TrEMBL record:
This is glycine dehydrogenase (aminomethyl-transferring). It is an enzyme of class 1 (oxidoreductase). Residues 1-21, 490-511 are annotated as: Disordered. It catalyses: N(6)-[(R)-lipoyl]-L-lysyl-[glycine-cleavage complex H protein] + glycine + H(+) = N(6)-[(R)-S(8)-aminomethyldihydrolipoyl]-L-lysyl-[glycine-cleavage complex H protein] + CO2. Its EC number is 1.4.4.2. NCBIfam families: PRK04366.1 (NF003346). One of its GO terms (cellular component) is glycine cleavage complex. It comes from Stappia indica. One of its GO terms (molecular function) is glycine binding.
C-alpha cells in the first residue's frame, strides 16, 4: 500500500501564554494545574484508617511481598478531585462537535446508560452460573437477531471485542471455510483506501496482502479486482473492502466486485466501521458480503476512546455461518440455547475455535439494544440519512475554500479534504489541526486515508444540529482565510490556549517515558513489611 510521504514537524515551537499575570498556585481560575498522584500522595501513610491486622499465617510463602506497595496515599476527596480536574482537560462528545473521520463520535443517549446500569446487567459477572443470567442471555439473543436482520446475513458471532478483533474473527472464519473445502489460498486483496487494520489482520493470519489502487474517483474498479484475480488465479482467499470506504464514498460497484471474488472461490469481508452511513438503507448481505464486523460502540452509540470497552460482533453469510466461533447462541425448541463446548455441537456446526474467554462486553450489548429499540426501524434509517446530510452540509459549506481530492461530488457520512488549499501558505496540515484546538474543536482525522496526501477527514455524525454545523463551518472558513492571508503566527506553535502546548511528537514516539521516577531529593523509601 502507498505511504503518505508528508512528515510531521518534530521541533516544538515556543508556546505563547494567555496571561502574563502569574498566580501563586499555578492555577488560572478553573484551569487548574494537577500533579501526578505520586506527587501529591504520601508513601509512608495510608489514605484510610484501617484496623491493625490480627496475627495470621500467610499462605503465599516465598511470593509474599517483601515491602509495602509503592503507592501514594490519598483521601477520597483528594482522589476524586484529582480525576475530576484531569477530566476537565479532556475533549469529549459531551463538550462539543467531535469531527474525527472514520470514528463516528456520536452522542450517547443517557437512556442507554440508565439501561446499562440496571441490576442484572451492570453487575453481571462472567463466571456466574448460566442459570442466573438468563435475562442477559436473552438480551444478547435479541440483539443478535436485530444485527442479523439489519445486515441481511445468516448468523452473528457476538464475542469479538472491537473492530480489529472482529476482522480477525471474520477472516478466521474464512480461513476455516477454505480449509474445510480442502483449499489453502494465500492471497487477500485489500484496496489502498482500506483501514490499516485490514492488511494487518490478513498478514497476521499468514496471508499475502495484494493492494488494489483506487481509481480517480476514489472507489475500487471491478476491472482492477478481476486483473488481480487473474494474476493470482486459484490463490485468492478473499477481499477486505470498506463500504462506505475511508474516502467517505459508497463503493457503487460492490456487487460486481463480490461476484468476481465469489467466482474465484473467494470470500468477501467488508469492514463495517462505516456502517453508520447505511443502517436501514442498504443490507450488506444483499450486496454479496460474506462477513462484516459491526462496531456497536460507534454505530449504535457509546463513543469510543481512551482504550475503553468496545464490541465488534461479526455477521456471517450462510456459507460462513457454520464456522462461527464458540461460544454462540442457537435457536432451540425451548428458546435460546447457549453453545459453549464442542460436545454441544450439532451436525454442520464447525466453529474454528474461540476468540476470547468470555462471550463479550455486556455494557455495550445493553447500550446498543437500548439505542435500537428507542430509535426503531424508521429512526435508525433517519440517523443514517442525517449523518450523510450533515457530512454533505459541511462539504458544501467548505468546498469553495478547502480542496476536495475527488471533486465536488456527494459523499456519504464523512467528507474528505486534502491540504492543497494550504500550498505556499507556510502552514502545514498539522499546524492547521493544532489551531483548531485553540478554537475549541478536536481536530479532524489527519493524514488518513493514505491514498490522499495531507488528508483531512471530517465526520460530523447525525448528532449535530444545523447551528452547531454552521459554527464549525464558519470557524474552519476563518482558519482557512487566515492561513491564506499569511497569518502564520496563529498556526505556528498552536495550540496556545490548551492546558499544554505543542509537543514534539516525533521525539515522544521515539523516546517515550513509560515510567515516572520520583526525584531523588523527595524520595521516600517504603518501609519494610514486618
Amino acid at each position: 500500500m502507498s505511504m503518505n510521504n508528508q512528515g510531521r514537524p518534530s521541533a516544538p515551537s515556543e508556546t505563547a501564554i494567555t496571561s502574563e499575570r502569574a498566580t501563586f498556585t499555578g492555577n488560572k481560575a478553573l484551569a487548574m494545574e494537577e500533579p501526578l498522584l505520586f506527587e501529591i500522595g504520601r508513601m509512608d501513610v495510608c489514605g484510610v484508617d484501617l484496623d491493625e491486622a490480627e496475627d495470621f499465617a500467610p499462605a503465599l510463602g516465598s511470593h509474599a511481598r517483601k515491602a509495602v506497595p509503592d503507592l501514594p496515599a490519598l483521601t477520597e476527596p483528594e482522589t476524586m478531585r484529582h480525576y475530576v480536574r484531569l477530566s476537565s482537560k479532556n475533549y469529549a462528545i459531551d463538550a462539543g462537535l467531535y469531527p474525527l473521520g472514520s470514528c463516528t463520535m456520536k452522542h450517547n443517549p443517557r437512556l442507554n446508560e440508565k439501561m446499562a446500569r440496571l441490576p442484572g446487567f451492570g453487575d453481571v459477572h462472567p463466571l456466574q452460573p448460566l442459570s442466573t443470567v438468563t435475562g442477559a442471555v436473552e438480551l444478547i439473543g435479541e440483539l443478535a437477531h436485530w444485527l442479523v436482520t439489519m445486515t441481511g446475513m445468516s448468523a452473528v458471532a457476538m464475542s469479538p471485542k472491537a473492530g480489529a478483533h472482529g476482522e480477525l474473527c471474520g477472516m478466521m472464519a474464512i480461513k476455516a471455510a477454505h480449509q474445510a473445502a480442502g483449499r489453502d489460498p494465500k492471497i487477500v486483496l485489500v484496496p489502498e483506501s482500506a483501514h490499516g487494520t485490514n492488511p494487518a489482520t490478513a498478514a497476521l493470519l499468514g496471508y499475502k496482502v495484494v493492494s488494489i489502487e483506487a481509481r480517480e474517483d476514489g472507489t475500487v474498479d471491478p476491472a482492477a479486482v478481476k486483473a488481480r484475480i487473474k494474476e493470482h488465479e486459484g490463490d485468492i482467499a478473499g477481499i477486505m473492502l470498506t463500504n462506505p470506504n475511508t474516502c467517505g464514498l459508497f463503493e457503487r460497484d460492490i456487487i460486481a466486485i463480490a461476484e468476481a471474488i465469489h467466482a474465484a472461490d473467494g470470500y468477501f469481508y467488508c469492514d463495517g466501521a462505516n456502517f453508520n452511513a447505511i443502517v436501514g438503507k442498504a443490507r450488506p448481505g444483499d450486496l454479496g458480503v460474506d462477513a462484516m464486523h459491526i462496531n456497536l460502540h460507534k454505530t449504535f452509540s457509546t463513543p469510543h476512546g481512551g482504550g475503553g470497552p468496545g464490541a465488534g460482533p461479526v455477521v456471517l453469510s450462510e456459507r460462513l455461518a457454520p464456522f462461527a466461533p464458540l461460544p454462540f447462541l442457537r435457536k432451540g425448541e425451548g428458546g435460546i440455547e447457549w453453545v459453549e463446548t464442542d460436545a454441544e455441537l450439532k451436525d454442520g456446526e464447525q466453529p474454528f475455535g474461540r476468540m476470547t474467554a468470555f462471550h463479550g462486553q455486556m455494557g455495550m450489548y445493553v447500550r446498543a439494544l437500548a439505542y435500537m429499540k428507542s430509535h426503531g426501524a424508521d429512526g435508525l434509517k433517519q440517523a443514517s440519512e442525517d449523518a450523510v446530510l450533515n457530512a454533505n452540509y459541511v462539504r458544501v459549506g467548505l468546498q469553495d475554500l478547502m480542496s476536495l481530492p475527488f471533486g465536488q461530488r456527494w459523499c456519504m457520512h464523512e467528507v474528505l479534504f486534502d491540504d492543497s488549499f494550504l500550498k505556499e501558505t507556510g502552514v502545514t496540515t498539522l499546524d492547521f489541526a493544532k489551531a483548531m484546538i485553540d478554537e475549541g474543536y478536536h481536530p479532524m482525522t489527519m493524514y488518513f486515508p493514505l491514498v490522499v496526501h495531507g488528508a483531512m477527514l471530517i465526520e460530523p455524525t447525525e448528532s449535530e444540529s444545523r447551528s452547531s454545523l454552521d459554527l464549525f463551518i464558519a470557524t474552519m472558513r476563518d482558519l482557512v482565510m487566515s492561513a491564506q492571508k499569511g497569518e502564520t503566527d496563529r498556526f505556528k506553535g498552536a495550540p496556545f490556549h490548551a492546558p499544554r502546548g505543542r509537543l514534539d511528537e516525533t521525539r515522544a514516539a521515539r523516546n517515550p517515558v513509560l515510567k515516572w521516577e520520583r526525584p531523588a531529593a523527595t524520595a521516600v523509601q517504603p518501609q519494610a513489611a514486618e
